[in-house]
UniProtKB/TrEMBL annotation, chain A:
A Pfam family per the record: Tom7
GO cellular component term of the entry, any: mitochondrial outer membrane translocase complex
Membrane topology value: Single-pass membrane protein
UniProt-recorded name of the protein: Mitochondrial import receptor subunit TOM7 homolog
Alphabetical UniProt keywords: Membrane, Mitochondrion, Mitochondrion outer membrane, Protein transport, Receptor, Transmembrane, Transmembrane helix, Transport
UniProtKB/TrEMBL annotation, chain B:
CDD domains from the UniProt entry: Porin3_Tom40
Name this protein carries in UniProt: Mitochondrial import receptor subunit TOM40-like protein
Disordered: annotated span: 1-41
Family: Belongs to the Tom40 family.
Molecular-function annotations in GO: porin activity; protein transmembrane transporter activity
Membrane topology listed for this record: Multi-pass membrane protein
GO cellular component: mitochondrial outer membrane; pore complex
Gene Ontology biological-process entries: protein import into mitochondrial matrix
Length: 54, 335
């Protein structure tokens, strides 16, 4: 497969950006999903401080 | 799975079931091996069941091998809800990187079975951005997708994408490893495992690798795999023209499991045999794993739950007599 050097460069930039976003965004995304789900019924609400202690 | 899973305390075997602690790690879609083989013989009927994946072919044997660590380790697991767990790990070691790691696990609400729910997202990261990430999702009733990525020094060192299709008596999986669109390189692995009789499963693996560093630019490897289960014994093996890997697992009693592994690599002119055993003492909340191999390496891991406190204590030791090496590790797992 031969790609035009400019296209290649653009793909490389897109890949680099998406890898960077994945690297630093994955754990925040997991935390976001966890907090969006919230606490179990009958339990006190979750807060960011719950990450450190209960 | 990184530190999060490696440090998670082993679930105790089935007859003894303590109330789950607040920070107990979820099963994450994996079947508990001890409960699976304790009850498997009773369920052996003429019905042919799904054989599982080739990736898990040697799992039963591999699970009783000790996973040794070095240095001191402190793990705090916290379950914030049934769907959300976090962990803090502090590692002090002279072999692997020391420092702090933060882990998070989210288990979705799509319940497949009492122990399995999807999607599962788990990952851990250290302050310099070294990340291990895993995403598992069940797409439909038979197809399962997995994505695993590892970032080290801001480089993606490993990416693996797997799709498993579970038929009634077979499993077919396709794995794509380290794909690079620009250089047209990567590894493609096709697995197929079929249950022929309730005790026998046979399959094969086709691996194709393409990359600039390879002679001729590409390489393909075909290997065969099989597993035979008889009562409490399991034989599993995979053979390719240049390598052979054989495993034998035997449940000797409710407490004791023994495993033997033989690995032969013809290309490297190397072969290693290992014998390992696992002792579960549910009454003492103790799991002990030990192994000896033909390179004179002796390894052992002891894990003890300090009931009624929500603590587990882990002790690991490896000694190699011929190289005169000794590594000791000790860990405390809270939650």
């Amino acid at each position: 497969m031969t790609l035009n050097p400019t296209t290649k460069q653009r793909i490389a930039i897109v890949l680099d950006v998406s890898k960077f976003v994945f690297q630093w965004g994955f754990i925040p995304a997991v935390l976001f999903l966890g907090f969006r789900k919230g606490a179990d019924p009958g339990m006190p609400e979750l807060s960011v401080m719950n990450l450190l202690w209960q | 799975m990184g530190n999060v899973m490696a440090s998670a305390p082993l679930p105790p075997p089935p007859p003894y079931n303590p109330p789950p602690g607040p920070g107990l790690m979820p099963n994450l879609g994996k079947q508990d091996p001890s409960s699976a083989d304790a009850y498997a013989p009773a369920e052996t009927t003429t019905r042919i069941e799904n054989p599982g994946t080739i990736e898990d072919l040697h799992k039963k044997c591999k699970d009783i091998f000790p996973i040794n660590f070095e240095g001191a380790k402190l793990v705090v697991n916290k379950g914030l809800s049934n769907h959300f767990h976090i962990s803090h790990t502090i590692n002090m070691s002279s072999v692997i990187q020391s420092g702090y790691r933060f882990g998070a696990t989210y288990v979705g609400t799509k319940q497949i079975s009492p122990t399995e729910a999807y999607p599962v997202l788990l990952g851990d990261i250290d302050p310099s951005g070294n990340l291990n990430a895993n995403i598992l999702h069940q797409l439909g009733s038979r197809l399962k997708g997995k994505l695993a990525a590892q970032v080290q020094r801001n480089k993606f060192t490993a990416i693996q994408m797997t799709a498993d299709y579970r038929g009634d008596a077979y499993t077919c999986s396709l794995t794509l490893g380290n794909p690079d669109i620009l250089n047209c390189s990567g590894v493609l692995v096709l697995h197929y495992l079929q249950s022929l009789t309730p005790s026998l499963a046979l399959g094969g693996e086709l691996a194709y690798q393409r990359g600039p560093g390879l002679p001729g630019g590409q390489i393909a490897l075909l290997s065969a795999a099989g597993r035979y289960t008889h009562g409490d014994s399991t034989f599993s093996g995979s053979i390719s023209p240049s390598a052979c890997h054989l495993c034998f697992h035997q449940r000797a009693s409710q407490q004791l499991q023994v495993g033997v592994e033989l690995e032969i690599n013809a290309r490297m002119q190397e072969s290693t045999a290992t014998i390992a055993y696992q002792v579960d003492l549910p009454k003492a909340d103790l799991v002990f794993k030990g192994s000896v191999d033909t390179t004179w390496t002796v390894g052992a891991v002891l894990e003890k739950r300090l009931q009624p406190l929500p603590f587990s204590f882990a002790l690991s030791g490896v000694i190699n007599h011929s190289k005169q090496q000794f590594r000791l590790g000790c860990g405390l797992i809270i939650g």
